[in-house]
Each structure stands twice: as structure tokens, then as C-alpha cells.
Amino acid sequence: MKCKMILLTLGAALLLTACNEQKAETKAEAKAEAPAAEAQAAPVAAPAPKPASAAIADKISMVDWETALEKVKEGGLFVDVRNPAELRDGFIQSSINIPLPELKTRFAELPKDKDLYIYCRSGRRSEVATHFLMQQGYEKVHNVLGGFMAYPHEQ
Questions:
Q1: What pLDDT digit, counting tens, does each position of 27-39 carry?
Q2: The whole model's pTM is what?
Q3: Which H/E stretch holds residue 119?
Q4: Which residues are catalytic?
């Protein structure tokens, strides 16, 4: 008899626990569905205007090495934003080296009236440099895709 009472109590406890868990799941599902329903009912707002820097990022000119090499022959300039230690891997003789960390204080050394072809090792720093120069009013700046790693060394 004592054993039956223990089993009966355990069974009742398990049953109550299972019911409570099911209620909690139902409440959680209802809460999850409510924001979805609200989102569908809410009017769609127009996207916020992009900040000026994001608009500039959309306008960055990306060029390949073949194009950049041709344009430099026509009067453009290469700007290498790699650090001095990286120049041991090679560099373009006619390029101007201004490491990216120094660009903020040295950008005035670059002419605004010539096309500037910016490169680094892989292309990320040159994109940052191109963006920065555009913010400073340079309009003829181009990021060279792939950086020096993509440079056709047989030139």
C-alpha cells in the first residue's frame, strides 16, 4: 500500500510538471507569434538616408591592375599605402609611399588634379585610404583590386 501511494504521488507530480511545461511552451509560442503579427500590421517605414561616409563608400572606384597600369601611363599616379617593411616584398618604382597610418597628416602631398591609384598588400587598406581621400575632397581616386598581391609582376 505504501508503495502504491509513492508511485501515485510520483505519477501525479510528473503529470503536473508536464502540464506546466506545455503551458510555458504555449505562452512562449504566443509571444513569438505576437511580434511577427505586429510587424506585418505595422506600416513599412522608408529606409533611413545613408550617412555621407556610406554614400562615399558606394561611389568608390575599383579598378584592376591592367586598367591602373594603363591610366598611370596616361598621367595617373600610384599611391602605395603599405608600411615601409612591406616594401621589401617589392614596389612600383613610380609610386608614392604614404603608409595608411600617416595618410591623415600627409594626404596634402597628393595632387587633387591627377587620378590616384591606391594600393596596399591585399586591397583592404587601400579601400580605407580611398574612402578617406574622398572624404577630403579628392574625386579622382581609385582602389586597385587585389592590392600588390595581385600585381602582375612581369610588367
A1: 544 454 444 444 4
A2: 0.64
A3: strand 116-119
A4: 120
